[in-house]
Amino acid sequence: MAEINRREYFKMMGVGAAALGMAGMNFACKSASEHPKTGSNPSETEEFNTPPNREQRMAWWHQARFGMFIHFGLYSVLGRHEWAMEEEGIPVVEYMKLDQQFKPKPGFAKAWASLAKQAGMKYMVMTTKHHEGFCNFATDLTPYCAPKQGPGRDLVKEYVEAARSEGMRVGFYYSLMDWHHPDGARCAHDEAARRRFVDYTHGLIRDLMSHYGKIDILWYDVAWPLDAKGWESSKMNRMVFDLQPDIIVNNRNKLPGDFSTPEQHVGGPLKKGDNRGWETCMTMNDSWGYNKGDDDWKSPKTVVRDLIYCSQGGGNYLLNIGPMGDGSIPEPSVRILTAVGKWMEKHGNAIYGSEICQVRNSTYAGFTRKGNTLYMHVYFWPGEYVAIGGLKTKVNSARIMTTGQPVKVEQTEFQAKFTGLPQKAPDDLATVLEIECDGEPIQDTLWVREDRPRDGV
Ligand code: GLC
To answer: Stretch 57-72: mean pLDDT, rounded?
Structure first.
């Protein structure tokens, strides 16, 4: 990929970031790639990604499938998207004053955690520091942190406690890019600045990994303007795993990490043999941070469909809320998640712990799988019957998941037809047929089934 400058990078990070697949993008920063070596200490230069027991560390996460992302910071007060500081060119000293209005109400995080639980989510990932540089946690490394400014308390601590009390796994988002710190940009071309800034960054991550008990996920974000060598990412991950041996980390500090992070689109099935996970992160409207004017909300059906498609491909779905400055969740998000939760209550068994599903072709349904059981999630209900073309595996029986009502099956080599269904969808968001197969369900993926009988046509 051609080199891009900071401004272009920022632009892309806005609306177009998803399309460009930021996570996997090979972003080349001139100054970063020309960086002087990072020192001769072998622990800094020796390659380290994550420990080899990945499968074990990630077992709960694969089961979980569905998590809540939370973008919360000074931008939540402003309500103009979390990129407002950069995109609107707000002077740093002016922006900093937002802390005075940043007064999350007591118990704010409890409401997040209880909504997450109600929605059927199993883990949460909260921004501990976003690009704006404000730390939501206690640290001695900067005065620009919640306990020492407006909020007057450690917001991360409250979040961790709330999440745990609802049985949620706890994740920390951390942005490496920092618009506030004086070395945040200069580190790209000034070695002394890089040294200071990398020490600061590793120090903050150390604080996060040391003061809140067991943390389940570290979710790095935006590594601009350095590369893995510049950030000393290998050393960073090593420190993280020294402090939190069971944690999992993503791929946004320029190392592969334990899982990849397709943004604003459903990722793809894993390649055979790749035991790294993937997680689609997505907004419910078009903004991560609270954005008053953004009314482009997804429907509960769209959310459920995305969750199904993530599960189908063996991935997770991290769905975002952008609370307001007082911590309250915008009403549309509550409405959407409540509807999704009602669906999950009845159909969660087809999502949690599901495995990669090879069956995927349908114009009105998505599929998930557990062993030999195929779940057909019909989101556009055609009435009377549904059918799957090219299902190679013999179907033993089928029923409507929620009612247990048996469904008649007529199967040929070319078509599995499920008949006698109600005219009206039993469930608005997606009605699920539970289909017991003789082996792992496999569908042919032919465009044209050449050898099917054409009756002389
Ligand atoms: C992008 C955005 C950032 C958001 C993140 C979530 O990196 O810059 O604002 O937090 O995506 O994945």
So the answer is: 98
